């Protein structure tokens, strides 16, 4: 591999950005492309699919063969709130391939006994996210019902372009949240990116069912995201 392409891939990896090493198999030429970059005719759809799926593949177009070597950052799921839904969500997220972390300043909830295999931050979201910024390959789910804990990370997730942003609560609760986020400077369009009530509409009632609905919506948002903005819809 050309040293320049290797450096480009390493830079994308460090910055948690998506990249594909596109190789023309007949000529041996290769280059690193990012979502939205211009590409050879006939491979656009395949490249878009590869960026969404994360699967490397061989593509043939107009008698030419290309290999797409896909490099996507591992998706993260940042959960605000060490609550019952989070307990059910943790093993599901691990099975689905998501690196899940939990932030909750309430030390009575954020304990190793309740979450033995999850990275916990028993701190305020403001402190954690300053040291560990959100990005386009992170999903954020706010589950505490407490504006003092949820509002800041929700705003940061929208501004960071997280592919998924969701918040637990009734429509009435969310209406009040909308007014607070407007007051913080977010536009109606930005606030509209927040999935609230959180999760796919499957009639979920128990914490485990809500966790299923949330994870399903997160996966949908990742796979259906707009490649130019990085934002997923995840709508049912």
TrEMBL record:
InterPro entries the UniProt entry points to: MoCofactor_Util/Proc, XdhC_Rossmann_dom
Sequence ranges assigned to domain XdhC Rossmann in this UniProt record: 77-218
Top-level division of the source organism's lineage: Bacteria
Protein name (database record): XdhC family protein
